[in-house]
Amino acid sequence: MKNNISVPELLCPAGDLQRLKTAVDFGADAVYIAGKEFGMRTASANFDEDDLKAGIEYAHGHGVKVHITCNTIPHEDEIQRLPDFLKAIDRLGVDAIIASDLGSISLVKKYAPNCDLHISVQSGTVNSLTATEFYKMGAKRVVLARELSLEEIKKIRENTPSELELEAFAHGAMCVSFSARCLLSSYMTGRDANRGDCAQPCRWSYSLMEKTRENQFFDITEDEKGTYILNANDMCMAEYLDKMVDAGISSIKIEGRAKTEYYVAVTANAYRGALDSLKNSKGDWTLPNWVKEELNTISHRTYSTGFYFGRPENAQTYKDAGYIRDYALAGVVTGYENGKITAVLKNKFLSGTTLNCLEAGSVPFEVKTDLLYDENDNLIESAPHPMQIIKIPFERAVKTGSMLRMKTE
What we know:
- The chain is an alpha/beta fold.
- It is built from eleven helices and 19 strands.
- It has two domains: 9-177 and 231-304, TIM Barrel, CATH 3.20.20; 327-407, Elongation Factor Tu (Ef-tu), domain 3.
- The strands form three sheets. Strands 1-2-3-4-5-6-7-9 form an eight-stranded parallel barrel, surrounded by five helices.
- Strand 4, helix 5 and strand 5 (116-119) form a beta-alpha-beta unit.
């Protein structure tokens, strides 16, 4: 690959205003959010009009774009409310609206003429003809289905208008249903996944029994907890960002609007570092080791590359829910004064614990707590109380909002 190559946009999730600010601070080029209706993650706090206005102002003030999801499949009573919602977000200055339902798309073009139209992954776009038809309907970007390989994406890029941007997921939870269009939650809980209210029954433990079919053996390994027959592993394409670029992807997307502020900070900082490394690479590119290590500090399932290299070979974890949690958030930096970091405590730890600091725009580094003080500068042996103010001697100022974490046992 050539030096100083053009790298894709880094698109990060934000479930509320604080997570939006975190994504911006830690390196996002764009964020995607949702209002109180019409988004696919009702479990997130999401944005009312005041938060949306504040979020747009903050993002735009840092040169970051704001995309808003409008990608549910609205029923008749909901579609009647959509025009007022679209007019409001158009007036506030949202950069792009992500939609999939044809009726919603028609309303976006009519009531939000100043916003770009992005076609959601919910549309299940897997070929150049479909992508081109969306382009003819006014789409600036298509979010490609997760079921595509890099070779297929490359062919789609070759056979679509060059002005049409292609977006694809690079990291996060995978859905076992095609392009996340699932009926399992509706049938089992009455919560409609296609209207943003998925109960995630694919993550539940199941046991299989067939009473009437003799001599048919169903090989499902299980223990006393059952078996997680639908539990998809998480995606991580950090090591293959160069191949995503070569396939013609314009924007790489991090899944996780329902995830924590810490998750947003880690993934934004790690992928920002990876993309900057790729941009400045000379010849063959290798993912920096610190990025690999960083992506293991967040709660995640076993990582896979999804369908990008063909049918996944490590697609699911069957024995349990699959979560790997090797690190815990110890505190968040609130300032620096008189040679000491000030932080608000999130999880207790003892004096002498070596912490790891996640600072925006930096490679993570160690912070030793051989000396630990309370807010009144009294020497303490432990920090046991959540929201307690602590002080840690350190040789330089650390940015406010930096996150201190510790290895769990």
